[in-house]
Structures
1.
Amino acid sequence: MRTKEEVRNYVWEALRPYALPPFPIKGRIPNFKGAKEAAERLFKEPEWRKAEIVKSNPDSPQRWVRLGALEQGKMLLMATPRLREGFLLLDPKKIPKSKYREASTIRGAFKYGAKLKTINELETIGKVEFVVEGSVAIDTEGRRIGKGAGYGDLEFGILTEIGLMDVGVPIATTVHDIQVLEPPLPQDPWDVPLSMAFTPTRSFRFKPLKRPRGILWDLLDPKKLEKIPLLKELKNRTSRFR
């Protein structure tokens, strides 16, 4: 089986003719031609339509998803880069409609969103009902590989650990067709599989694969614990209740 890094390098190279800025795409969740069309496929799904609070990654190809969430009146939760400042909550009712496009960017999210740096602040918003992740590669059974930093899986662990999100929450991604590979992709115990995926031309629904429950503390990089205040707070809370 190929390693995760081999899969990433294969996709980054194969996607080059279809890539959009920012460049270079290597090392990123790559932006691609057709990202808007992939997002429009996602918007048709009943789980998305009924969700009032959605979480999305901040990467460029999912900007159409974030913009759509705001235009459709959904509360939008985004993680800050490397989770250093927790999460951002964007309430479309508090943002001028003319500023939705700006607010759907990471810089605009900091301008128009409210920072949620503590568990108590997160617990005020209600449950996240739909999640969108960025991907470098996926397979046709729902396994996903990101860019290698692990923050999407860590966000899932944090939000499920504090009860803000169910382990079985619908999780989707939007990718180019070239990013969809034959199974199985290599996976680690903390990797969170997808419920559905959308390309410019296809829609996928996957049978449920096993997901981790909360944070896998024994496997967590100690450096992340030191650098992410929210994670340290959660660790301390967990330790008190043991």
2.
Amino acid sequence: MKKNESKRNNVKEKKKIEVNPHVILASSSLTRIKLLKKFFKNFEIKKHLIDEKLEKSIMKHLTAKDLAKYLAKKKAESVCSRSDRKYIIGCDQVLECNGKLISKAQNLVEAKENLAYLTGKKHQLFTCLYVLRNTEEYLVEETTSQLYFKKISEKTIETYINENKKTALSCVGSYKIEDNDKYNFLEILEGSEEAIIGFPIKNFIKKLGSN
């Protein structure tokens, strides 16, 4: 394919996505909002109505992967109305290390404990993007990422938490992959960047473009 032809096709695809019905993101994640803005002009942010801690305690029998899908679906459903023809996106990410689920920390002490537990270990991130339209399942995108958290000192952990308090309390595992360039504490063994940051949206965009 010639370069100019490829460019024209990309422009057509972008225009096609832009005129698609309204997209609602059932999340207040700044990272997801930022990515959504790159691809859509017509979108809305609605905070989901799910108590993740409660749901996790109820659904203990689920695997980490199934839990991520369950929570993503519940989040999308929590902001969905019966007559809604918009695309509603729910997302969730579950971190598992040696069979233990590592959730968002409730305070900085827990954040420190999360990082202390992960240091020197491999762990998995199960991510699910769940899309509803007309109250029906439109797309489910599930990914599994493998990471290794390098062995770091207690002092380094404290430094990271003190410099990134918001991240420590808002992310599973109490860290952000985006911080790795600065701190160099993670080794990605398997997985794409969009999956690791918790928003595997490319296949959703492709499906919209094929409609």
3.
Amino acid sequence: MYRFFTEKENIGENQVRITGQDAHHIRDVLRMKPGEEISVCTGDGWEYTCIVTELSPSEVTARITDAAKGARETASRLTLYQCLPKGDKMETVIQKAVELGAAEIVPVLSSRCVSRPEGKKAENKLRRWNQIAEAAAKQAKRLVIPPVTPVISFSEAVRKAGAQGICLLPYEKAEDIAETRRILESLTPGQPVSVIIGPEGGFSEEEVREAEAAGFQPISLGRRILRTETAGMAVLAMLVLFLDT
């Protein structure tokens, strides 16, 4: 069953309205007809099973046949702070982070980042990143579309994360994987967890000290050095194992 998203105000007592790109996709790409079944989410955890009733040039209307509070989201809010990688690697990071359950992706500009988009280029990238997050959420049958925020500085990132809950910093000089296992086993479902991933050149020692001062716990991801686009996926997969209920 195809899944689409709409604003909460578009949900009526027994019908739903779908507008924008999703309406175009239903009508012009999938060429769906009245009578076909779809799933609609509003981003607040509710999932509606619907039957398409009408397709117009501007919107699709569907009759609600069932509504249920979904259980696809991880019990803990997982936020990925990703220092900007080179090229288009950020697109892969966003796609996979959404698939793995991240609730928010925050691009970060650290001292060793090579990619430094500005102005119109930054606006276009952010628009593209959020489109990727939406597509990944639909593919993974998420009940929400995790937002990708505008780029912030490293200092802003550690301050923001430090006020939100458990903070983890994968770092090649951290203690062995046994300590990482101990930290993960101490987490409980429902605790917000933030993870910050360095760029290709890693974190500077000054940044590590700043993150630790803000409450980040350095962790190891094992004996091998992972690429920046792999490290976030590895941590999120570990967290899902311990926090998904």
